[in-house]
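FIELD: query
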Amino acid sequence: QVQVVESGGGLVQPGGSLTLSCTASGSIFGISAMGWYRQAPGNQRDLVATCTTGGSTNYADSVKGRFTLSRDSAKTTVYLQMNNLKPEDTAVYYCKVTRRLPSERYDYWGQGTQVTVSS
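FIELD: result
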């Protein structure tokens, strides 16, 4: 099992910044990717940004140029730096950790952290 713990959400004014962090622990062998998704009320859960252990990073078009995903050297913590936040960025942000073993793939989700962008 992999435990996924998120932190860093909160209330921020439009144009402001927040940094989310996500740490994976437990059976971390085989982690192949970590990233963030978000879900606004009434909407599906959508990709925000992900990165593979090989260093490939992918961003949703809506956040390109404003959000930056980075990770620590141990590759068990990722950070999402969010700049120039907009009201439409308001959502619950979830961290997902993907673990690949020789014959199986597992996805682990965090509990979610609320980001509210409002004046």
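FIELD: remark
Residues 31 and 99 are 4 Å apart (CA to CA).
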